[in-house]
Write a structure and sequence with these properties.
Helix 1 crosses helix 7. The chain folds into two domains: 205 residues, Aminopeptidase (3-Layer(aba) Sandwich); 65 residues, Beta Barrel (OB fold (Dihydrolipoamide Acetyltransferase, E2P)). The longest helix is centred in the C-terminal third of the chain and has 17 residues. The protein has a twelve-stranded mixed sheet with strand order 1-2-4-3-5-8-6-7-9-15-14-11, with helices on both faces. The chain is globular, with a radius of gyration of 19 Å. By secondary structure, the protein is α/β, with parallel strands linked by helices. Helix 1 links the parallel strand 3 and strand 4. Helix content is 25%, strand content 28%. The structure holds zinc ion. The site of zinc ion has 4 residues, from loops.
Length: 294
């Protein structure tokens, strides 16, 4: 098995090639600079591949351990703009993340399947996003053995061009790839890196790049939450309590309070999704979702 360390102008890639036919599998970490679990998970996978703890039996795997190096160094979500809202080819790239997006999309173009590892602010359980409902996407998601799924991202963002120009998975799917984004756990939870590592191993096994990876638990029945709406913070204010991802709320329950007096209430009987207590003005503050049959 060959291992090549590539250096694009801003992004490091590490590639392992089995020398046999098979898919090109891409793993991303650190798309958001304060989300270290993917980088840690990738680091472990690289060391284990190099030391022969496991090996590829077909195809190639390409790792990008840190997709946003400047934000990673500063331990913040992004440097100038949220990378995972500007993933497209920018003809006139000027912002740091636009330049990164041009490189990252070039890397995604060369792969067949992508796994993008993230973490989130407030909550305990890992979850993943499914969007298209194709048999291949659902099989990929099921193979991850993660109970909580979130859907409806594209429907929520497709008319919000001021917030979103593209993300890793949407870009990959638009290019005919198969892709999955996993939120491995809370940013500072060491268990998130373990979820990320396990997801890499389960995915490589699922697509036949390695032998079987023995997971020690039963695959859970998915609990699907469909996104209903997103609230962007428009001024200074506070969440009324330390909401956790997957908390349930009744319609009309106050969830956040602006300093100018306006109260934000839940628009549905549903579920709090990815609340960000310290969101900046102009950023996503809280999402609402509703349970959906799997
Ligand atoms: Zn993220």
């Amino acid at each position: 098995m060959n291992c090549n360390k590539g250096k694009h102008s801003m992004l490091d890639t590490i590639t392992f090639d089995s020398g046999k036919k098979g898919p090109i599998f891409l793993v991303l970490g650190g798309v958001h600079g304060n989300e270290k679990c993917g980088t840690h998970a990738i680091g472990r996978a690289i060391m284990e591949l190099r030391s022969g703890i496991f090996s590829l039996t077909s195809g190639k795997v390409v790792f990008v351990p840190i997709c946003n190096p400047e934000a990673y160094r500063l331990n913040q979500r992004y440097y100038e703009v949220n990378l995972n809202r500007v993933v497209k080819k920018h003809e006139m790239a000027s912002l740091y993340e636009q330049i990164i997006a041009n490189e990252l999309t070039g890397i995604i173009d060369t792969c067949d399947i992508m796994l993008d590892l993230h973490s989130y602010s407030s909550g305990v359980k890992p979850f993943l996003f499914v969007e298209y409902g194709t048999p291949e996407e659902l099989a990929f998601a099921k193979a991850m053995r993660i109970e909580n799924w979130v859907t409806g991202w594209n429907a929520l963002y497709h008319d919000k061009k001021e917030l979103w120009e593209g993300d890793t998975c949407t870009y990959a799917f638009d290019k005919g790839k198969l892709a999955l984004l996993i939120e491995c756990g809370q940013h500072d939870d060491p268990a998130a890196a373990q979820v990320g590592y396990r997801s890499i191993r389960l995915a490589l096994a699922h697509f036949g790049l390695t032998g079987a990876f023995a997971a020690d638990d039963e695959p859970p029945a998915p609990q699907v939450c469909k996104l209903h709406s997103v609230h962007v913070k428009r001024a200074s204010g506070k969440l009324v309590k330390p909401w956790q991802h997957l908390d349930t709320v009744k319609k009309g329950t106050p969830v956040a309070q602006y300093d100018d007096g306006e109260t934000l209430s839940s628009p549905v009987d549903g579920i709090i999704v990815m609340p960000v207590a310290n969101a900046k003005v102009g950023e996503e503050w809280i999402f609402f979702g509703v349970p959906e049959a799997a």
